[in-house]
Design goal:
- With about 240 residues, the protein is an alpha+beta fold.
- Helix content is about 30%, strand content about 20%.
- It has helices at about 5-10, 20-25, 55-75, 85-95, 140-145, 180-195, 235-240, and strands at about 15-20, 30-45, 80, 105-110, 120-125, 155-165, 170, 215-220, 230.
- The strands form 2 sheets. Strands 2, 4, 5, 6, 7, 8 and 9 form a 7-stranded mixed sheet that branches. A two-stranded antiparallel ribbon has the order 1-3.
- The mean pLDDT is about 85.
């Protein structure tokens, strides 16, 4: 259940702490870093059928689950707090099952030859939070029909973006209010990767640094090797690395 990493961490014990719903949605805080977790990969031909969850639906379903879990273990609704112990977590799983998924918000299209070590990003983009990004046609996918890509294996990776704020609290970017702030952070991830990776099928953001909120980004790839454990960020951070 990798996609549910932030709720699963709360259910798995340890020192994980989840702030209240009121805090996440209404309080002032600074985002100090972002995590991009690629945890699903499909053949590019499967992109149109891949399930994508709108941001608002994901946020609603996740908080409904958390609030039900709080009720089961005797905590105030909307105030999950410290991670549950094993006994309480088992009560939650038995009563309401596995937690819902966070939304996928960033995708990456790659091509490779005979081995995964040759895999190369050719396009990075954001999923649409309302309409399915790949069912109405996609310019990059059309370009991959060019003869130069014949015989290449084409994959698409989907990733969730989590924010770490100045209180070291972690939560999905789609929980951030107002939506304009969320959208700026997602654009920051998209344009930072485009600027650093220079994917050949992207046309915007390769020659000019368009990142609206320069923020350190750590990538975790749970379904492949490409970009796994790599860090990206503002030019001064990247240069130091």
């Amino acid at each position: 259940m990798i996609r549910s990493h932030f709720i699963s961490a709360w259910l798995s014990g340890g020192k994980f702490y989840m702030k209240s719903q009121l805090y996440v949605e209404c309080e002032d805080y600074d985002i100090k870093s972002l995590w991009l977790n690629f945890d699903s990969c499909a053949g590019l031909h499967e992109a149109a059928d891949f399930p994508l969850i709108p941001f608002d639906d994901s946020r609603k379903e996740c908080w409904e689950y958390i609030n039900k879990a709080c009720e089961i273990v005797g905590r105030p609704p909307g105030r999950p707090g410290w991670a549950l112990n094993t006994e309480d977590a088992q009560k939650v799983y038995s009563a309401i099952g596995e937690p819902p998924f966070a939304s996928y918000s960033i995708y990456m299209i790659t091509v490779s030859g005979s081995g995964r070590e040759e895999e190369t990003p050719v396009y990075v983009g954001q999923t649409n939070s309302i309409n399915h990004r790949f069912r109405g046609g996609h310019a990059a996918i059309s370009k991959l029909h060019a003869p130069k890509y014949d015989g290449k294996e084409k994959r698409i990776y989907f990733g969730c973006v989590s924010a770490v704020n100045d209180d070291d609290n972690t939560f999905p970017v789609e929980w951030i209010n107002p939506p304009e702030s969320r959208d700026k952070l997602l654009s920051s991830v998209e344009y930072q990767l485009i600027y650093d990776l220079q994917p050949e099928l992207n046309t915007t953001g390769k020659d000019k640094y368009l990142v609206p909120i320069p923020t350190p980004i750590v990538v975790q790839n749970m379904v492949g090797k490409i970009l796994d454990a790599q860090s990206f960020g503002p030019p001064e951070i990247s240069d130091e690395e």
